[in-house]
């Protein structure tokens, strides 16, 4: 299972989190986020990492020129689209960056809204489900209604996100079977400052599951 730790700012934490077992690290490229990182910060955080670690840039409603510039200059290997990007936008992004994994995040508002993931099946590689928050785009610590996801079995691999912590992860995985999990605020001291003890506890619990 893929394990993504998102919202990393400090280069030394990226290496430590990869060493603890993360398969993917996420970097927030959304300027309004308290976890926002510049291209230079991403380069510094990525430099010591092995090629086996996925380096995912998180964007929300950015244009293709900007995404392409950040991805190609920073060394990111995947793009997470966390805004209101349409399937047509994803198709155009794929044409611009054919080698890069595209992950479409959906901030799920309802069971009906969840069905919109069907529109992305042919145009992205991976789906990600996060909780809806009326004021914030992500990193909210809010959990999804896991019961609502019981029947979610898309044709694409998917990440479960939204309010996951070392304390609720086993409960989540006993109810749902995502291909990956994504944690941010549930393993940090303050926005962007990850708590390495919580990350270690997460992997300890995952290893016994
Ligand atoms: O973390 C942020 O600040 C952020 C800002 C804008 C878009 C997405 C963001 N983070 C994403 O939020 C989810 C879940 O976070 P949490 O575990 O509930 O804190 C995750 O996919 C992050 O990539």
Automatic annotation (TrEMBL):
* Name of the protein: N-(5'-phosphoribosyl)anthranilate isomerase
Give the pathway: Amino-acid biosynthesis; L-tryptophan biosynthesis; L-tryptophan from chorismate: step 3/5
Magnesium: present as a keyword of the record? no
The protein's matches in NCBIfam families, at most eight in alphabetical order, are given as: PRK01222.1-4
Taxonomically, the superkingdom here is Bacteria
GO molecular function terms listed in the Swiss-Prot or TrEMBL record: phosphoribosylanthranilate isomerase activity
Keywords, comma-separated and alphabetical: Amino-acid biosynthesis, Aromatic amino acid biosynthesis, Isomerase, Tryptophan biosynthesis
Q: Which PANTHER family match?
A: N-(5'-PHOSPHORIBOSYL)ANTHRANILATE ISOMERASE
Name the gene that codes for it: trpF
User: Residue ranges of the N-(5'phosphoribosyl) anthranilate isomerase (PRAI) domain?
Assistant: 3-204
User: What is the top EC class of this enzyme, as a single word?
Assistant: isomerase
In which family does this protein belong, per the annotation? Belongs to the TrpF family.
Q: Which reaction does it catalyse?
A: N-(5-phospho-beta-D-ribosyl)anthranilate = 1-(2-carboxyphenylamino)-1-deoxy-D-ribulose 5-phosphate
What are its E.C. numbers?
A: 5.3.1.24
Q: Which organism is it from?
A: Okeanomitos corallinicola TIOX110
């Amino acid at each position: 299972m893929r394990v993504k730790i998102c919202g990393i700012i400090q280069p030394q934490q990226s290496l430590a989190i990869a060493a603890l077992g993360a398969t993917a690290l996420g970097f927030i490229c959304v300027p309004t986020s308290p976890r926002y990182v510049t291209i230079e910060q991403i380069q510094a955080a990525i430099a010591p990492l092995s090629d086996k670690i996925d380096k995912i840039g998180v964007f929300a409603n950015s244009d293709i020129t900007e995404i392409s510039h950040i991805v190609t200059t920073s060394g990111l290997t995947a793009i997470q689209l966390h805004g209101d990007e349409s399937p047509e936008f994803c198709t155009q992004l794929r044409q611009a960056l054919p080698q890069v994994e595209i992950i479409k995040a959906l901030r799920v508002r309802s069971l009906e809204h969840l069905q919109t993931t069907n529109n992305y099946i042919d145009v992205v590689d991976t789906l990600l489900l996060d909780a809806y928050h009326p004021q914030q785009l992500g990193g909210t610590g809010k959990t999804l209604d896991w019961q609502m996801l019981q029947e979610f079995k898309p044709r694409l691999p998917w990440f479960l996100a939204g309010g996951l912590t070392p304390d609720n992860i086993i409960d989540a995985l006993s109810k749902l079977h995502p291909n990956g999990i994504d944690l941010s605020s549930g393993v940090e001291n303050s926005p962007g400052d990850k708590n390495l003890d919580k990350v270690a506890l997460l992997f300890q619990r995952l290893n016994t599951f």
